[in-house]
Here is the input.
Amino acid sequence: MAGKNEIGGRKRKMSILIKNVSILFFDSEEELSFSEGDVFVKGDIIESVGKKLDVEADVVIDGRDKVALPGFVNAHTHAAMALFRGYADDLPLDIWLNEKIWPVEAKLTPEDVYWGVKLALLEMIKGGITAYGDMYFFMDEEAEAVTEAGIRASLSVGLIAVAGDPSQKLREAEHFVSRWNGEAEGRITAMFGPHAPYTCPPGFLKEVVSAAKQYGVGIHTHLAETKKEVEDIYKLYGKSPVEVYEEAGVLDLHVLAAHCVHMTSRDMEILKNHGVFVVHNPQSNLKLGSGIAPVPEMLKKGIPVALGTDGAASNNNLDIFEEMRTAALLHKGVNLNPTLVTASEALKMATIWGAEALGLKNVGKIEPGKKADIVLLDFNSPHLQPKIDHVAHIVYSAGSADVDTVIVDGKIIMKNGKVLTLDEEKIYQEVQKRTQRLISN
Amino acid sequence: MAGKNEIGGRKRKMSILIKNVSILFFDSEEELSFSEGDVFVKGDIIESVGKKLDVEADVVIDGRDKVALPGFVNAHTHAAMALFRGYADDLPLDIWLNEKIWPVEAKLTPEDVYWGVKLALLEMIKGGITAYGDMYFFMDEEAEAVTEAGIRASLSVGLIAVAGDPSQKLREAEHFVSRWNGEAEGRITAMFGPHAPYTCPPGFLKEVVSAAKQYGVGIHTHLAETKKEVEDIYKLYGKSPVEVYEEAGVLDLHVLAAHCVHMTSRDMEILKNHGVFVVHNPQSNLKLGSGIAPVPEMLKKGIPVALGTDGAASNNNLDIFEEMRTAALLHKGVNLNPTLVTASEALKMATIWGAEALGLKNVGKIEPGKKADIVLLDFNSPHLQPKIDHVAHIVYSAGSADVDTVIVDGKIIMKNGKVLTLDEEKIYQEVQKRTQRLISN
Here is the structure.
């Protein structure tokens, strides 16, 4: 492979031609449409898109019966928690956290995180996710796994200031940002990850803001996830979590705020005014009994909303199709209004708006000049027939198993449903062994 | 094949042995568990279940890495509406019905229904559904498709008394019941299908009840689906839809009542007292903006709740895994209580309680003497690792694509994901052609 890629010592740019595929176009922010054509990828960039392109490529993919989409973005997860899938379900939140999740997290080793992340990456790549946002610990190991898997990621060291030495943790986070931001040929970007308003007091938040400004990176955080959080923060500070963040200067940065379930109108105005990116995690919010985020109101106000799966201990899979579908269905039912959160909106939440939430300016559309993060869906299945409306089929009918090919940064990392960069059997064995150790008493 | 099955002119019973598979057991109505063993099927019946069975079989299936479940039951759908998948989404209910669905339904031919049903059966079998309940029109064609496909079905001619000649329709429904109930080697059963309280006045309902008693069959109906229905019925009769049905004697029969979204406590008491089987269709209720059925309250009262997909024009797929998952997630989130509708309850809703709702007394468990309706899931996928809790994985992580093998009435109708009884390509072609004709002006 090295020989093929290098000519006279210089790296030659590999090229891919996807022929006769139905391509998703963003005609405007309002309208999505599909048109058949070819996509030509050179190196990490989409070079051209059009009808019957007259080009030669190293790899030619037959796109018939397939649909080409910009890769999906899972804007909020904790990948390593795939280790705890199915370990604690249907429990009250305090028992879930105190008696189940925190005790097993306390036992995690860096190698456990490495293998847990690999399981999550395998699942996400199989489901067409080409970029994701994560906040957890042992992030060096996560970054190594991302480098190997070939996926794109925005990674943050989770910061909790109410235990241990907060300054030491912040220094570790700074070290992570300086080591990994821009690595893996630019596929890894970094943010600072203050965990939540109830674990990061305003003084600490200000230190994080200062560090983020210094490194020129954004903030990934949890915000207004549960009713109890909001009540506790009001008791402590006499204001809402969103207001606490605003006062501490957090919202002056690029902010990716996960959940935003319990908010006032004024909170939403603040998010809008500061250009905060909200990540809606509908299945996690339902499963943990957190509630239902006011997504239709946020969309109406023009707040950019992305989608996330959250971790596999509260979902329990990392399937962005399900989040799209749940987002598109849930708000219609809760508000008795079948016109809310359209299929087009849900698809944008899972692609272009997700890319924007991660701060990826050159990702999220199939257009010349954009990064080549492309997913091919196989439409040759009964649940995707008859072929009438591709957008509706993708949001309301399709699933992860319909993903056939995944290209990230111009490299094919999955073909015919087989992930080329990860060893499935080895991952299953390692994860099974490690989870059994973690959950044993 | 005929030669193999017949010995001396008598049909020999084919046998299947599934070896070393993880089997779902219903230890009691409260507890589900898995245990590894073998399942031996002879003819249409599960002959024995246990460790290392010492039997010989015509077909031996290696069950390693697989999970054996009783087949899933989709207790309420309109299969032929698969023709309209993706045709009308995100619209107000009156426009969806008046301008989209009813006009295309008016153009349907018996052959359209036959092919639409075949598409639905292909999708349902691929998703592990071994029995389903349907109410629609041109039901002779649906029964033919069911006979060919090898699935089990409870079929009802939909009866609307506010247009046309109600008595003529009832005679047609009687004809359907007398022709098809017990056909296809017993796989087809029939019910009467009065559409809903707002389309069937009490006088007509009484006629239907009388016919159902005469033929000894049950009732499949829609009930209390929308707020508007309840308001309209109150205006007309001064009582709730459930009370109208009770007074007309409907609830004295075996009743499968789809939706039951808008109900009072008293309505639920009536359903409980009459042993009515409720079919929860969470995704359809969300998508059409109908609302959220009070499932936790119904379960608490002891009302048996099954699951349905409803038709593909309001869902848009026929995936019972998604209905299980939505049922298990939705009520937790809406009620801010993560202990409501457990994974075990959702799995029972999709199997044994579904079978009971269809009146199938000998279906829904893997036990000696029961009908051999069995589904094998392949657990060799990242979203089903690590292997900790099969029930949680099936409800919160699995999907239709994990179904590997489907056995109905002792016959293998899907193997390694390939449906053996239906011609996929032919179905796709017919459906595409017919839908294009139906939706053209």
